[in-house]
Structures are given as structure tokens and as C-alpha cells.
């Protein structure tokens, strides 16, 4: 299966082929090509509902990750026992929320979606940012991923993470 990109919103035009290509590059960098991954693009209303149901935060956000393998330690790869466990999980991208941020900060939408997806993949791989130490560890990982991505693609992406935020 690899990567499945679903666009369940109509607010922001998304180039799914480009997003899938960027996600494949991120998977290559992390050595997780054998794992399936779902990317779901949603509007503010849907991401706010999901955020409220699962995190008790009644507001839209940029990304929510739902790992297939729970309790992974950061930096450790899942050890699936069966073929049907070769799944990292699903990432919901709040593309309307990201588009608003891009307009405010004059950023390219697809570049921002790639950065937010890298952040989501880090969460699927056990990284968190609820403490200063976790934030530092996750930021280092994102910096590595994006520097490799930039080296391979010639782009200049940087992490979007704010200091020790529990809101994403």
C-alpha cells in the first residue's frame, strides 16, 4: 500500500501527487518505506472535531497523528510480528488551518504541508513535545529530517515547531 493520501476537504486546493512524493522522500530519509502510512487532508471543522474528541481541545490545529504502534520510544522503530502490522498510522492534516498560517507568514502551502507531515511522522515514531527535554529531542529529529530532505530536493524547509507547545 505505501502512502495513501485522501483529501476530504474542498476549502484548499491540494496537489496530492506532490504531497505523496514529498511523503515518500520523508519515508526514505527515515528508512520507513516498508511501513504503510495514511495522510488525510481535512478542513478546520473536521480537524477541530477530531481534536475535541481525542484531545479535549475544541479548536482547529495543523496536524493530528494516530500511531498504529503505541508506546514507541523516540528513535526506536516498530517491530511488527505480522505483515498487517507494517503500518505506522494515520496523520490528519488541517490544511485550512495550515493555509491560514501560510497566508499570515507568507509561506508556500505545499512546503508547509511537508514540514507538518514530518512533524506528524515524528509523532507516529514516538516523539512528543510535552516537556522541554522532549521538545528538544523532537526538534533535533525534525531538523535532521528536513536537512536531509533539503539536501535531496534542493529546497529550504525548516521546522515550524514553537517552543515546548502541547497544542500540536
Folded structure, characterized:
The longest helix is centred in the C-terminal third of the chain and has 22 residues. This protein is α/β, with parallel strands linked by helices and 168 residues long. It starts with a strand and ends in a 15-residue tail after the last helix. The C terminus is likely disordered. The chain contains five helices and four strands, in the order βαβαββααα. α1 packs across α4, α1 packs across α5 and α4 packs across α5.
Describe this structure in a few short sentences.
45% of the residues lie in helices and 15% in strands. The chain is of the alpha/beta class and 168 residues long.
The fraction of residues assigned to DSSP E strands is 5-15%
List unreliable stretches of 5+ residues: 164-168
Largest sheet: 4 strands, mixed
Radius of gyration: 15 Å
Total strands = 4
Spatial ordering of strands, largest sheet: 1-2-4-3
Q: Supply the helix-strand structural class.
A: alpha/beta
What's the helical proportion of residues? Answer: 40-55%
- Give the CA-based shape: globular
- Average of the residue pLDDT scores: 92
Count of helical regions: 5
- The arrangement of helices and strands along the chain is EHEHEEHHH
State the end-to-end CA separation.
27 Å
Amino acid at each position: 500500500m505505501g502512502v495513501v493520501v485522501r483529501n476530504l476537504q474542498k476549502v484548499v486546493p491540494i496537489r496530492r501527487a506532490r504531497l505523496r512524493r514529498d511523503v515518500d522522500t520523508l519515508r526514505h530519509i527515515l528508512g520507513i518505506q516498508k511501513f504503510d502510512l495514511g495522510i488525510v487532508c481535512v478542513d478546520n471543522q473536521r480537524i477541530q472535531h477530531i481534536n475535541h474528541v481525542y484531545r479535549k481541545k475544541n479548536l482547529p490545529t495543523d496536524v493530528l497523528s494516530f500511531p498504529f504502534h503505541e508506546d514507541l520510544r523516540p528513535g526506536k522503530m516498530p517491530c511488527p510480528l505480522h505483515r498487517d502490522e507494517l503500518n505506522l498510522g494515520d496523520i490528519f492534516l488541517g490544511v485550512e488551518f495550515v493555509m491560514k498560517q501560510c497566508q499570515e507568514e507568507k509561506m508556500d502551502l505545499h512546503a508547509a504541508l511537508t514540514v507538518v507531515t514530518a512533524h506528524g511522522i515524528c509523532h507516529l515514531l514516538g516523539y512528543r513535545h510535552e516537556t522541554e527535554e522532549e521538545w528538544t529531542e523532537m526538534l533535533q529529529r525534525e531538523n535532521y529530517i528536513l536537512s536531509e530532505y533539503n539536501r535531496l530536493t534542493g529546497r529550504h524547509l525548516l521546522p515550524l515547531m514553537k517552543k515546548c507547545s502541547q497544542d500540536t
